[in-house]
Amino acid sequence: MTTPASSQLNKAGLARTDYKGLPSTLCAGCGHNSIANQIIAACYELDIVPEKIMKFSGIGCSSKSPTYFLNRSFGFNSLHGRMSSIATGAIFGDSRLRALGVSGDGDTASIGMGGFKHMVRRNVPITYIVENNGVYGLTKGQFSATAEVGLVLKHQGSNPYMPVDICMEALASKATFVARSFAGDSKQVKELLKAALSHRGVAVLDIISPCVTFNNQENAIHSYTWGKDHEAPLHEISFIPALDEIEIQGEFDAGSVREVNLHDGSSIVLKKLDKDYDPTDRSKAFQILEQAERENLLITGLIYIDTSRPTLLDTFNLVDAPLNRLVETDLRPAAETLEKINALMF
Amino acid sequence: MTTPASSQLNKAGLARTDYKGLPSTLCAGCGHNSIANQIIAACYELDIVPEKIMKFSGIGCSSKSPTYFLNRSFGFNSLHGRMSSIATGAIFGDSRLRALGVSGDGDTASIGMGGFKHMVRRNVPITYIVENNGVYGLTKGQFSATAEVGLVLKHQGSNPYMPVDICMEALASKATFVARSFAGDSKQVKELLKAALSHRGVAVLDIISPCVTFNNQENAIHSYTWGKDHEAPLHEISFIPALDEIEIQGEFDAGSVREVNLHDGSSIVLKKLDKDYDPTDRSKAFQILEQAERENLLITGLIYIDTSRPTLLDTFNLVDAPLNRLVETDLRPAAETLEKINALMF
Amino acid sequence: MPGKVINDFSLTIATVNGSGSQTANVTLLRALFKMGIPISGKNLFPSNIQGLPTWYTIRLSKDGHLARRDEVEVVVSLNPASFARDLASVQPGGAFYYADDIKLPIDRQDISLYPMPVKAQARQADVSPSLRDYIANMVYVGVLAQMLGIDMDKVKQALTFHFKGKQDPINSNFKVIESARQWAEQNLVKSDPYYVSPMDKTRGLIMADGNTAAALGSIYGGVQFAAWYPITPASSLAESLNIFLPTLRKKDGKANYAVLQAEDELAAIGMTVGAGWSGLRAMTSTSGPGISLMAEYAGLAYYSEVPLVIWDVQRIGPSTGLPTRTAQGDLTEINYLSHGDTQQVILLPGSVYECFEFGWKAFDLAERLQMPVFVLSDLDLGMNQWMTEPFAYPQTPMDRGKILWETDLEKSAGVWARYKDVDGDGIPYRTVPGNLHPASAWFGRGTGHDENARYTEDHATWEAMMARLVKKYETARHLVPAPILDEPAGAEVGIISYGSSAPAVEEARVLLEQAGGPKTASMRLRALPCTDQAREFIRKYSRLYIVEANRDGQLKQILAAAMPAEAPRFRSAAHSDGLPLTARWIMDAISSMEKIT
Amino acid sequence: MPGKVINDFSLTIATVNGSGSQTANVTLLRALFKMGIPISGKNLFPSNIQGLPTWYTIRLSKDGHLARRDEVEVVVSLNPASFARDLASVQPGGAFYYADDIKLPIDRQDISLYPMPVKAQARQADVSPSLRDYIANMVYVGVLAQMLGIDMDKVKQALTFHFKGKQDPINSNFKVIESARQWAEQNLVKSDPYYVSPMDKTRGLIMADGNTAAALGSIYGGVQFAAWYPITPASSLAESLNIFLPTLRKKDGKANYAVLQAEDELAAIGMTVGAGWSGLRAMTSTSGPGISLMAEYAGLAYYSEVPLVIWDVQRIGPSTGLPTRTAQGDLTEINYLSHGDTQQVILLPGSVYECFEFGWKAFDLAERLQMPVFVLSDLDLGMNQWMTEPFAYPQTPMDRGKILWETDLEKSAGVWARYKDVDGDGIPYRTVPGNLHPASAWFGRGTGHDENARYTEDHATWEAMMARLVKKYETARHLVPAPILDEPAGAEVGIISYGSSAPAVEEARVLLEQAGGPKTASMRLRALPCTDQAREFIRKYSRLYIVEANRDGQLKQILAAAMPAEAPRFRSAAHSDGLPLTARWIMDAISSMEKIT
Ligand SMILES: Cc1ncc(C[n+]2csc(CCOP(=O)(O)OP(=O)(O)O)c2C)c(N)n1
Ligand SMILES: Cc1ncc(C[n+]2csc(CCOP(=O)(O)OP(=O)(O)O)c2C)c(N)n1
Ligand code: SF4
Ligand code: SF4
Ligand SMILES: [Mg+2]
Ligand SMILES: [Mg+2]
Question: Rounded CA gap, A208 and A104, in Å?
Answer without folding.
Answer: 10
